[in-house]
Amino acid sequence: MRTKIAIIGGGLSGLYAAYRLEQQGITDYILLEARTQLGGRIMDFTNLSQTTKNNFDLGPTWFWPEFQPQLNAIINTLNLEAFAQYDQGNTLVERSHTQPPTTMRGYTHAPTSMRLKGGMGTLINALHAKLSNKQIVTGALVKSITHQNSNIEVNFSTSSTADNKVNVEHVMLALPPRLAVSQITFTPALPSNLVTQWQNTATWMAPHAKYIAVYDTAFWREQALSGSARSSVGPMAEIHDASNPEGQAALFGFIGIPADDRKHISNEDLITHCRAQLVRLFGAQAATPKADIIKDWAKDSLTATSLDTHATNTHAPAPDITAQNGPWHQSLVGIGSEWAMQFPGYVAGAIEAASHGIEQYLATSN
Question: Looking at the structure, do residues 199 and 211 belong to the same domain, yes or no?
């Protein structure tokens, strides 16, 4: 099989790269996504019904239009609806197991944290719907990329076939740099300084775990609470209202237990402790959610590597997107969010990095 471009990764950066290519009249590409669904770290928890009213974000949740105009413009172009993160009411602070939480006056975030109606997954679905090219393969795990005699061979496996090959002229890596060098064999080898840079670039969200509890009503609002809480007790260190404006109510929290320590705790036990924490904070009504879930990104082999287990929750500076010379120069380009200069790791970074990669491709291919 031969095509012009291979996009490795079907998250936001990969889909946006495909969208930008098609805007330029280029449909001669194949997109390979290792997961069985598109979206990458944009992932939904859909509760009770299959309507988007009850979608909750397991991955990124917020964006900031004032700071991220490029992302906001795309959201508007795709006619997606946004709403402000609920922050009306008081905030709770939990400092000790032996003392009740302290109620503090809430504060309004500036700039406003915005969410998409139906969750971030609506952005993935809208971009996918815009694509005319049907060469989008899910469940396709890329194993090796070989450059020889001006041809690049991408070898990948699927659930039905272990050995698939596609020959291309150009490869766009729409996955985290660290994951790329961990899971893909490059022949000839990438320059050692580039490998070092990519290995040292932490994958955003990889050390995180997120808990979501879904309820029929946002009962905490009746108590003049915003749903926001901070805790030095845990297991959740930070909690927010995750309710859908036209659907179910929910709370979500980031687990404060380090990824290394979470290896020794089952999800079932962690969920039990999260429920108990919500009861301590918000009362007995929190004890019986309609549904709840933990997404531990550190245990997701298509997101995290062993290096990410010890990572800090900081956005790393962007590494080089391509080799400075040699056969991989400009023929292999990183376009995942971690390669963004301004918003590395963020949703807006995926748009930024993909845009840069496409611009560079157009400039060098003419």
Answer: no
CB-based contacts of 53, cutoff 8 Å, min separation 6: 118, 244, 246, 247, 248
pLDDT in tens, 205-261: 999 999 999 999 999 999 999 999 999 999 999 999 999 988 889 999 999 999 999
Same domain, 76 and 126: no
Q: Which amino acid is at 77?
A: T
Cα–Cα distance, 311 to 203 (Å, whole number): 8
User: Are the C-beta atoms of residues 131 and 18 closer than 8 Å to each other?
Assistant: yes
| DSSP β-bridge partners for residue 145 | 154, 186
CATH of the domain at 358: 3.50.50.60
In 3-state terms, what secondary structure has residue 171? strand
Answer yes or no: do 62 and 173 share one domain.
Answer: no
- What does the pLDDT look like over 57-78, one tens digit per residue? 999 999 999 999 999 999 999 9
Burial 75-99 (b: 16+ CB within 10 A, else e): beebebeeeebbbebbbbebeeeee
How many separate domains does the chain show?
Answer: 2
Average pLDDT over residues 308-333: 84
Q: Which helix (H) or strand (E) holds 364?
A: helix 347-365
The pLDDT value recorded for residue 196 is: 96
Nearest to 15 by CA among 350, 330, 343, 321: 350
153 to 26, 93, 171: CA distances (angstroms): 20, 55, 10
Give the structural domain span for 283: 47-118+207-298
Asked if residues 210 and 74 have their Cβ atoms less than 8 Å apart, the reply is no
Hey, what amino acid is at 75?
Answer: I
Pairwise CA distance, residues 296 & 348, whole Å: 22
Name the residue among 89, 114, 105, 102 with its Cα closest to residue 220: 89
Q: Based on C-alpha coordinates, what's the Rg of the chain?
A: 21
* Cα torsion through 204, 205, 206, 212, rounded to 10: -170
Q: What is the pTM of this model?
A: 0.94
